Amino acid sequence: VIGSGLAGLSAAALLSYNGIATTVLESHDAPGGAAHTWSRRGYHFESGPSLYSGFSTDTSPNPLKNVFQIIEEEPEWITYDRWGTVLPDGEKFAAKIGPEEFGDVLREHGGPGAEEEFASLMKRMEPLSNAAQALTSMALREDAGAILTLARYPRELFDTLKQGQALNDPFALIMDEMNIQNKFVKNWLDMLCFLLQGLPAAGTMNAVMAYMLADWYRPGVTLDFPKGGSGAIVDALVRGVEKNNKSSVHVRSHVDEILVEEGKAVGVKLSDGSVVKATKAVVSNADPFVTKRLLSKAREAGQTSTEFNDYMDMLTNTDADEGGIPNLKSFIHIHAGIDATGLPTEPSADFPAQWAVVRDWDAPEGVEAPRNIVLCSMPSLIDPTLAPEGKHVLHAYVPATEPYEWWEGMDRNSEEYKKKKGEAADFLWSAIEEYVPNARDRAVPGTVQIATPLTHERFLRRTNGAYGPRVEAGKQTLPGHKTPLEGLMLCGDYTFPGIGVPATAAAGAITANNLVSVPQHWAMLNKIRLPEK
Asked: Tell me: the pLDDT tens digits for 411-427?
């Protein structure tokens, strides 16, 4: 398995569970990909995901929770229930997620008709929500065996098929049908969709919207946070891989080449010249641009077929006019430890652990406009072990709205680059200071770190620092995990079902399902616990 992102680790853990000797090769010095963590001066920093749900309950449709159930390894979960928002006019609120307090938010900020409009939308989405959560992605495989694994869930399969194309249609059609007019409701849906998957509501599939609305606005819902931070998720998956004494995860192991012999992927060559042979398959958790480069020697030598070459060219085509899928934009981040004097020690309605700052609902690109939305997180409010006593740890970033072109070609050691990073830091500090007074003055020397699209490209090996593919419902579709090259499979957020923690875990699981027998797959399904319908 090339790359130890959540998809690669999920695939590896499930394969290892089934007795398949699996080697995970990670270029970085820590596993986890965009979910990897690191420490500095006693502060715990997270590179990526900050919103988790569906983990603290015994039953869950979340594919990553289901992976944990199969491998019998899991972090300890801390629950909380508030998420803050700072509106363009400076007003702020931190209502509980779920329906209990959101009606108050709609009445106060949406005005007349907002609550009724949202309630009507929820009622209209109910059958789609039921269908979207009915059939677990853990049952999917890309061969004839799917007939058996899907038939295990006949009622759920019927509910999903009954909605058919509607699940794949753009949510814009539902918004038009329901005549959604309230500006706050429309803006809120855009923001939630964008934060969770990188697209405004209109371009998002009904299946994604239906799942999200059902998950976030059900009674009693909570958000979950892994004790010890996101690295605890990665650690659990690594333990799952290495339970099999023939399996292992290796860091600082940079893959230079995928080896192809007689039309089949047979292993990889590392930068130190060593070769790791594959008896069953090579799984690439790298993005398709990187994967294509890893196959360049085989392609030049004529070892890959025209069909496969065309397939990889299609996956790396970002021109929408030519049928390609454009990339989403990139990120800027700030990580810092701060002095906590006078600050709360636990989250509340007045001081949430996480908040979004929206600068302008009417920006030309809406929620996708550069530096229009900032996500801020103070995870030490949830888990105090993440910072020294009397301190907090902060993370703020723009969610896939930073153009790579603004940074492309810059020398990372140049004064120009340092100045631009300083400007990015000022912008992010201003969002943090919506809740944390004088935050930048509280910063602990030696802890402030600024990340740019070039950082994403360098450390996460994301081409152009991109968040992932910008797949618009009704216009493009993501590929599956099998490829025309025998022995090569792809997983991660450039494959079905796409971006986000549940989706990437599902991609890893489907990839593993393809490589095990139907009885082995069935036995894994025996271990997952799904909500009662």
From this structure: 999 999 999 999 999 99
